[in-house]
Design a protein that fits this description.
Layout (H helix, E strand, L loop, with lengths): L1 E10 L4 H17 L3 E17 L2 E13 L4 H10 L3 E9 L11 H23 L3 H7 L30 H13 L1
Length: 181
Amino acid sequence: MNYYETLYIVHSALEAGRLKDIVLTVESFLKENGGEVVATEVWGKKKLGYFIDKQKYGTYILLQFKSDGTKNNNFNVEMEHNLSILAYMTVRIEEDAIREQTEDLDTQIAGREAKTSRFRRDEEKSKETSPEETASKVEEIPAEEVVTEGPPVEVEESKEEIITEDDAPAEAEVAEEKVEE
């Protein structure tokens, strides 16, 4: 027997009950095709690297199983025909790469949804932060504590005169006199 894992992405709009049905359906596909489920992990809803079927988010699920490999192609065809599954990939793994399943499926689904909603809530709070609040959180480092590499650099002060509005008319008159000469 060989060990395999399938990572598949389920449509993110599905509710918890429907998500569980899809996971159980995939596991039944596997059993029908001679596989034995070793571990299932629900990774939760994540942003996709690119759009898949016009979807920006998907729920990731990792399924590890034992199989002789002869009917894996039938399993992949079943995955391909399931409209709720956006994408999937099955690879062969070594026995020592098998993960230990610590939580049952219901706990995983409920826990991932709670973390996702908490993450979304925290993300919304961070967007509400005003620029003044952000600036107040930035600490100013005293000049003595700033570390620079290399020898100290001397800064020359500029010797250019700054012309103010009061000086501007006088400068204009001097320029006109030079032009007339």
